[in-house]
Amino acid sequence: MKKLIVTATLAAAAFAAQAKDIVETAVAAGQFKTLATALQAAGLVDTLKGQGPFTVFAPTDEAFAKVPKDQLDALLKDKAKLTAVLTYHVVPGKVMAADVKAGKVKTVQGGELTVATAGGVMVDNAKVVKTDITASNGVIHVIDSVVIPK
């Protein structure tokens, strides 16, 4: 009986770890504080906690640090522009690294990201530095720069 309880507890813990949505997964990672702040400012937290599935190309705090502070501050104050930039980082569906192909990919924002696969995966001018961080409603691929819609 004791073994059964331990097994059930471990199974529940494993399920709880898998059950985090994209926002919770990003926040737990600790390297997406600026992204989390931007998602809140744009009112997109509930969207990315939704059913999905979504593929998010998530810029790290270091990626956001490459954006000049005055430009980043202005972006955080302009909800429409911020929403456009953030939704440009999101692709409908769950696209795992093994399924990525070079070419144009339609974003939730409506624009297209250019994906290159030669010598590592690039999304516009951002390098994908970590892939396949799974969440209950999609997947996160970490990028080293913020991509801006054209």
Question: How would you summarize the topology of this molecule?
Answer:
Layout (H helix, E strand, L loop, with lengths): L1 H17 L3 H8 L3 H10 L2 H4 L5 E6 L1 H5 L3 H9 L1 H9 L2 E3 L10 E4 L5 E5 L5 E2 L2 E10 L2 E6 L7
Parallel strand pairs: 1-7
Antiparallel strand pairs: 1-2, 3-4, 4-5, 5-6, 6-7
What would your notes on this structure say?
With 150 residues, the protein is α+β, with helices and mostly antiparallel strands. Helices cover 41% and strands 24% of the residues. It contains seven helices and seven strands. A seven-stranded mixed sheet has the order 2-1-7-6-5-4-3.
Number of domains: 1
Distance between the termini: 61 Å
* Element pattern in H and E: HHHHEHHHEEEEEE
Strand content: 15-25%
Oligomeric state of the chains in view: single chain
User: Could you name the CATH topology?
Assistant: FAS1 domain
CATH class: Mainly Beta
Sheet with most strands: 7 strands, mixed
The class by helix and strand makeup works out as alpha+beta
CATH architecture: Roll
Indicate the overall shape: globular
For the record, what is the CATH homologous superfamily label? FAS1 domain
Count of beta strands: 7
Strand order of the largest sheet: 2-1-7-6-5-4-3
Protein traits:
150 residues, alpha+beta, FAS1 domain, 7-stranded mixed beta sheet, 7 strands, disordered N terminus
Would you kindly provide a brief summary of this structure?
The chain has 150 residues and is an alpha+beta fold. The protein is built from seven helices and seven strands. The chain is globular.
